[in-house]
Specification:
By secondary structure, the protein is mainly β. Helix content is 4%, strand content 49%. It has a seven-stranded antiparallel sheet, with no helix packed on it. It is globular and about 75 Å long. The two termini are 13 Å apart.
Length: 256
């Protein structure tokens, strides 16, 4: 399902129906939506060379146009509530009823317009600008109990997106010792943290490359081999060794 077909949407965890709004399409004929993110080629042209040097691509943050109609006549109270809802100082989640698993993180951008008949009936056109060129799935959480030191536990985790995902790994250690995670779908790279204590909880944030523990005045960067876990697209075949309860939190990132 596409955005244009949706009659409702949720922004900053509040549904549009709470304000008596119905999402509409103001264009005639076929729906016109983004299929892939807008990107430009990074290259450098050199004198007397027919082919420029190619350095890659630069993606533009996505923009999502939204038009909504006031089901009933508006008043100042309703307008103020909608303004407070839409004017946010940071990127907030936006998703549409037709596909709640496709989440955009955005703020309004440009010059929103209200079109009306002078009798407090009409609709609003607004453009939401995303924090990146991509949409995201909800946050997935997969937990496992690894209860053997000698034989690793094999785990499969699916990254259904188009880009690498950087999970948060939460380790609740059972007994003193080490925990190792090998991703055979990513070249067999091992993420390993050593000398953890019984009942210690360690959080490894792969995207921000941060490690925290619930032990006071203890830092675990020196216990880690600095290989932060990555989920490639498709199935990730992991091998986990070391007694623990382990949780993987992650979002898949998809092209618009």
């Amino acid at each position: 399902m596409t955005i244009s077909e949706s009659l409702g949407f949720t922004y900053n965890n509040i549904h549009s129906s709470e304000f008596g709004l119905i999402k509409i399409s103001t264009s005639s004929g076929l729906f016109d939506e983004s299929f892939l993110p807008n990107r430009s080629i990074i290259e450098e042209k050199i004198f007397d060379r027919d082919e420029p040097y190619f350095f890659g691509f630069e993606y533009e943050p996505a923009e999502v146009p939204v038009s909504f109609y006031f089901e009933d006549k508006w008043n100042e109270v309703k307008i103020n509530k909608i303004v407070n809802w839409l004017v946010q100082p940071y990127y907030c989640p936006l998703y549409f009823d037709t596909d709640t698993s496709r989440i955009f993180y955005c703020v309004y951008h440009g010059d929103p317009r209200i079109l009306h008949n002078g009798l407090k009936n009409g609709y609003v056109n607004i453009t939401m600008r995303c924090n990146s060129a991509f949409s995201y799935t909800p946050v997935y959480k997969n937990s496992f109990i690894v209860d053997t030191e000698s034989e690793p536990m094999n785990i499969e985790i699916a990254n259904i997106g188009h880009k690498i995902s950087y999970p948060i790994v939460i380790i609740e250690k059972i007994g003193d010792g080490d925990v190792s995670i090998v991703n055979y779908s990513n070249g067999g790279i091992e993420s390993k943290i050593i000398d953890l204590l019984d009942k210690e909880i360690v959080v490894i944030d792969s995207f921000n490359e941060e490690i925290t523990t619930d032990l006071e005045h203890v830092y675990r960067y020196g216990n880690f081999n600095n290989n932060f876990l990555k989920f490639v697209t498709g199935i990730n075949r992991l091998s986990v060794k070391g007694n623990c309860r382990i949780t993987f939190e992650y979002q898949s990132k998809r092209y618009i």
